[in-house]
């Protein structure tokens, strides 16, 4: 049915010397920032400002982790859950809670300490 209608329109256009354009106009979507709300908008604004890790979810490489020089974990809260992969070929994560003001030792012997980070 659509092909018949198309052929009829082409014949009518040919008889009346009407030109037509078969290219559709492409309407682009607006900027996602205009549609975002809530936490998604906050994330997009922080990424636009240059913060590629707005929720502090990136993996930290573990340092020496001694009692005198512990691995520093930033947090805007009084406590944070931290996962330690004790050995390179380990297939699970050793999870532990860190409390502000206290150092914590993982089962593998590495020390961790929570440090204050300003909330965004």
TrEMBL record:
InterPro entries: Cyt_c_oxidase_su5b (IPR002124), Cyt_c_oxidase_su5b_sf (IPR036972). One of its GO terms (cellular component) is respiratory chain complex IV. Zn(2+) binds at residues 84, 86, 106, 108. Pfam families: COX5B (PF01215). Keywords: Metal-binding, Zinc. GO terms for biological process: mitochondrial electron transport, cytochrome c to oxygen. PROSITE patterns: COX5B_2. The keyword Chloroplast does not apply. GO terms for molecular function: metal ion binding. It comes from the Eukaryota. This is Cytochrome c oxidase subunit 5B, mitochondrial.
